[in-house]
Design brief:
The chain is mainly alpha-helical. It has two domains: 211 residues, NADH Oxidase; 30 residues, no CATH class. Helices cover 43% and strands 6% of the residues. The chain has ten helices and three strands. It has a three-stranded antiparallel sheet with strand order 2-1-3. The two termini are 36 Å apart. Bound molecules: flavin mononucleotide (FMN). The site of flavin mononucleotide has 10 residues, from loops.
Length: 246
Amino acid sequence: MTVDVYEAVTSRRAVRGFTGRPVPRDTLERVLSAAAWAPSGSNLQPWRAYVVTGGPLAVLKRRAGERVAAADPWDEREYEMYPAALKSPYRERRSAFGHERYSGLGIEREDWEARQRAAAANWDCFGAPAALFCHIDRDMGRPQWSDVGMYLQTVMLLLRAEGLHSCPQMAWSVYRRTVAEIVSPRTASSCSAACRSGSRTPRWVTPVRAGRRSTRPSPSSRGDRGGAAGRGHSPAARRGGRHRAP
Ligand SMILES: Cc1cc2nc3c(=O)[nH]c(=O)nc-3n(C[C@H](O)[C@H](O)[C@H](O)COP(=O)(O)O)c2cc1C
């Protein structure tokens, strides 16, 4: 299936209802190997992605569902999802989003319980058969978080090229400890080993290999090399600065 980039971009939307039909492992591998070409400052590739499917995903959904049912408090935040006081026009946009989302489900603005029930579908991944959790080392800064955003958008567009949809979710961050019970290096290696040894049904928690070690030479960087903007001729070099180019 070929999808024009414009079509991939405009047909991507946050989908909140999936069939649960398993996605073949080679499809996910194709998407994730290509997504590894997403750009990042100094090619750090600061994303650490884990794919969770099959049994481990069912366990994760069950444990999260139990926490929701028990009205378990959310895990303490490592970051704020939104600024405490959203200013205009963001406040209005957020409120319009909430209105669209819940009125589309026939839920009244004041019906807090129904809203909570609808939101709880987040922790069932809206029925999706595969989840990708993306981690970043705590010592990375805002520029690296933007790298992760580019990576995730690349994944979502490539999924469109495979005829698949997705939904980005911050919601899982509130149950991050439950996620960590499933997505941990120890479980990851044992599950991916189990997967390698046999079954064609994807059932794995596996770290996604970054997939590339270097940058590709691009026509412009080849062309630039001898030019005024080429290496050794950057503004920093001209100023005698010691900063490395980003
Ligand atoms: C960083 C990020 C976090 C999001 N978290 C959630 C989430 O937890 N649950 C959810 O249902 N949608 C979530 N969304 C989806 C947004 O609500 C959605 O992208 C936005 O409303 C625009 O709609 P569209 O993606 O369909 O164009 C998230 C999107 C982004 C980019």
